[in-house]
TrEMBL record:
Cofactor: pyridoxal 5'-phosphate
Record's keyword annotation contains Ion transport: no
Species annotation: Ananas comosus var. bracteatus
Any Gene Ontology biological process: amino acid biosynthetic process
SUPFAM superfamilies: D-aminoacid aminotransferase-like PLP-dependent enzymes
Protein family according to the UniProt entry: Belongs to the class-IV pyridoxal-phosphate-dependent aminotransferase family.
Protein name: Branched-chain-amino-acid aminotransferase-like protein 3, chloroplastic
InterPro entries membership: Aminotrans_IV, Aminotransferase-like, BCAT-like_C, BCAT-like_N, Class-IV_PLP-Dep_Aminotrnsfr
Length: 243
């Protein structure tokens, strides 16, 4: 039958069935071996218990509660000239977020720090950032994390040649509702409001959007803070302006 005259061509799709990991691995390597630049030179997974350099293997379990329930937190650190910028401050915030999310890390703080440093060194990346997550872990598809034997820790190195913007950018105020304070101060993985705010800006030809609170005060952007330089050339953060 000619596909163009078939009223329901999608009904005739044949989906492959893979019964072994070898077949899946071949498809993953096929996807990543098509000349794509390797933007993620290293990943760590506590599920595997090792640093992974092959991007085809940088995966997490589908039953991880961070995937299907959003029960996870994250943080980041800039990587400049091979050095991690303010890793300790970000790691402290990471652990505060995990406490609010009621996720107990699988390792003590110093071990988490060591893992991130070793992952960055193994990547041989000199410029970019690292991002790391703490999840309730894999276990089942229920709401409660009781079925998760152990929390999971993941990290990845992201190569990026960041450059300073000197000409300014266009921004718009966002119509997407802001997160409530509890979730805005906890760096959790539910970034759908942030994504929608960025998409809204792009649809209007802008670089980013800015949230304004219910009192009319400027709050923040989807992934950046906002500050002002006064006429006397003083750098003013928003909390000091509002107060």
């Amino acid at each position: 039958m000619d596909g163009s005259s078939d009223p329901n061509p999608g009904a005739h799709v044949q989906v492959p069935v893979y019964s072994t990991g070898v077949e899946v691995l071949e498809k993953l390597k096929e996807q990543w071996g098509s000349g794509r630049k390797q933007a993620y030179p290293a990943m760590y997974s506590s599920v595997i218990g090792a640093i992974i350099l092959d991007p085809a293997m940088m995966v997490i379990p589908i039953d991880d509660h961070m995937v299907h329930r959003g029960h996870g937190v994250f943080d980041t650190a800039m990587l400049m000239d091979g050095y991690l910028y303010e890793l300790d401050a970000h790691l402290d915030r990471f652990l505060r977020s995990s406490s609010k999310a009621k996720i107990t890390p699988p390792f003590p703080r110093e071990t988490l720090r060591t893992i991130l440093i070793q992952m960055t060194a193994a990547s041989k990346c000199k410029k970019g950032s690292i991002r790391y997550w703490l999840s309730a872990g894999p276990g089942d598809f229920l709401l409660s994390p009781k079925g998760c034997p152990k929390a999971a820790f993941y990290g990845v190195v992201i190569g990026n040649d960041y450059s300073q913007c000197k000409e300014g950018v266009k921004v718009v105020t966002s119509n997407t509702p802001m997160k409530p304070p509890m979730f805005a101060t906890m760096k959790n993985v539910n970034y759908l409001p942030n994504v929608l705010a960025v998409m809204e800006a792009e649809e209007k030809g802008a670089f980013a959007s800015i949230w304004v609170d219910e009192q009319g005060y400027i709050a923040e952007g989807p992934n950046v803070n906002v500050a002002f330089i006064s006429k006397s050339r003083i750098w003013c953060f928003l909390h000091s302006i509002k107060s």
